């Protein structure tokens, strides 16, 4: 399933600071912690807690967020369906990166073990 240019543009222009509280809420409702969320985000992007806070304070878009990120070399091991899209079939790099993050957060909220979420080769 291919994404549309409009969808990709909408994803690129979303503000990270406006979505981040939803990530926190989603994992905490399921008994996981903000620290675990930060561990997952750091694994994928290389951003530590202070980096995240700076990005939130700057009100960056997801385009800027992922431009600054150093994606983990094993990120391509993240597979499956999230938000109605099969991650492996998404062609737009930014949209794929956003779905990687969504998938990791979904797995965290569903109680998957951290060693499985943080893919190893």
CATH topology: Helicase, Ruva Protein, domain 3
Structural class assignment: mainly alpha
- What's the number of domains? 1
Q: Please tell me the CATH architecture by its name.
A: Orthogonal Bundle
| CATH level 1 name | Mainly Alpha
- Poorly predicted parts: none
> Reading side by side through the largest sheet, how are the strands ordered?
1-2
| Global morphology | globular
Number of helices: 7
Radius of gyration: 14 Å
Number of separate strands: 2
Write out the CATH superfamily name. uncharacterized protein sp1917 domain
Distance between the termini: 26 Å
Strand content: under 5%
Helix content: 55-70%
Mean pLDDT: 94
The run of helices and strands is: HHHHHEEHH
Describe the main β-sheet briefly. Answer: 2 strands, antiparallel
Organism: Dokdonia pacifica
Protein name: DUF2200 domain-containing protein
Please provide a written account of the structure.
This is DUF2200 domain-containing protein. It comes from Dokdonia pacifica. Pfam families: DUF2200. By secondary structure, this protein is mainly α. The protein has a single domain, classed as Helicase, Ruva Protein, domain 3. The protein has 7 helices and 2 strands, in the order αααααββαα. It has helices at residues 5-13, 16-29, 34-45, 49-58, 62-68, 93-109, 114-117, and strands spanning 81-82, 85-86. The protein has a two-stranded antiparallel sheet with strand order 1-2. A hairpin with a 2-residue loop joins strand 1 and strand 2 (85-86). Helix 2 packs across helix 4 (49-58) and helix 3 runs antiparallel to helix 6. The protein is globular. It starts with a helix and ends with a helix. The model has no long low-confidence stretch (mean pLDDT 94).
């Amino acid at each position: 399933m291919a994404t549309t240019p409009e969808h990709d543009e909408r994803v690129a222009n979303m503000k990270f600071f406006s979505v981040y509280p939803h990530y926190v809420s989603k994992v905490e409702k399921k008994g996981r912690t903000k620290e675990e969320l930060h561990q997952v985000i750091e694994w994928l992007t290389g951003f530590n807690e202070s980096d995240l806070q700076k990005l939130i304070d700057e009100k960056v878009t997801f385009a800027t967020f992922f431009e600054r990120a150093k994606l983990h070399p094993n990120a391509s091991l993240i597979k499956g369906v999230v938000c109605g899209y099969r991650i492996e079939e998404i062609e737009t790099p930014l949209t794929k990166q956003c779905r990687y993050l969504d998938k990791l957060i979904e797995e965290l909220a569903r109680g998957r073990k951290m060693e499985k979420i943080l893919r190893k080769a």
